[in-house]
Specification:
Adenylosuccinate Synthetase, Chain A, domain 3, ten-stranded mixed sheet, Adenylosuccinate Synthetase, subunit A, domain 2, alpha/beta, binds inosinic acid
Length: 443
Amino acid sequence: MNTAVVGLQWGDEGKGKIVDLLTAEHDFIVRYNGGANAGHTVVVGGETYALHLIPSGILSSEKTCVIGNGVVVDPAQLLKEIESLRARNITVGDNLMVSNRAHVVMPYHKEHDAALERVLASGSGNNSIGTTKRGIGPAYADKIHRSLSIRMGDLLDPDYLASRLGVICDIRTRELDALGVDAPPLDAASLTESLVSMGRELGPHITDTVYALHDALTQERPILFEGANACLLDIDHGTFPYVTSSNCSTLGIPAGTGVPGRHVQRVVGIMKAYTTRVGEGPFPTEELGETGDRIRERGNEYGTTTGRPRRCGWLDLVAVRYSAMICGATSLSCMLLDVLSGFDELKLCTAYELPDGTVTDRFIPDAYRLPQAKPVFETMPGWSEEIVGATDREDLPMAARDYLERIEAITGLPIEIASVGPERNQTLRLQPPTAMPSTAGLT
Ligand code: IMP
């Protein structure tokens, strides 16, 4: 069975842990979107691994990890991750494939990202997105622009690179200048040299991953698709414009890997037991006072990629239900349940009240209308016990079980997995895997 793991909120749901857990059941682990804006933290045997580009499946050497064509790859970051894994005796060889069609994140994309954010923040009113400044938006923009983009396969062809980078550097220098970046003109020759050198190192990994994946399908080798970022950050279905620049919902799988959606039978939607968000953008259930601070401290809610404190609030089930619908989720995984220990009562947002007094259970994927929605909460009793040692549903206090059951009732989906701590063994398998009928698909 092929599986997708996808975040149903605004990211940082703990997908890395579930991908790590489900890796055992699959042969191929595949990234299909995003870039080094994602941060997956996996804790194994007390060791913490923070990965941005390489699928966390790399920690199991017998698995094949694939960076699909839909990912934007910063080759310098990729090399850094490979080196730091090797330094910790993790094998990175034939088990890592990078699509020759994945587009490259260049140093000037990162400069452009940061400069644009600065300009947008300094105008009247703050119009910045609060990006990770990893160059994601500018790299995807170049992909769509076509004539200005370089793909990973191009790094293996020095003459082609040299023939393209002259004009690209010229245009980029003028754009950076217009954004107020005070730097010498971009030097095409030295950029070519550095890309060729990185291409030489990454060459053994760069390949046609579409055929590799279809070979895997033919041989019935199970594939796990690892979504980066999350559904509410999806460029088409998220809270636009406060989103990232890729299709992070499962709808990104076909385009970002070349694998038709009908091959994905199981979609595990990952959600926290509460809600967080980094960067700007609407967040109806955000708690700005003591409750938000308490969730942040208990949940260590600081960004893996940027270290920024995350905004925290109660669980928004209107949002989760919407994302589950867009992603075709067949089950849920509820993460960080342990963070909620010690609250007298817990709130679940089940609907929104609009300015005209109407109440809706539909999400509003539009950053300018969503702030008008007032969350309608259901209140449930909390629990005081720490639950980090729970290994089964029966080990959980009744209030925690009720909380999970209420989530299942409102979303109409089974909670397959619940997580009560960062370690692999702090994971409760509550239900058997749920799959779509084999004729159903995502495309
Ligand atoms: P970008 O992807 O760096 O362009 O950032 C766009 C928005 O998406 C910003 O609000 C980021 O904070 C947010 N974002 C991007 N990737 C992630 C992620 O993996 N987790 C949480 N937020 C993210």
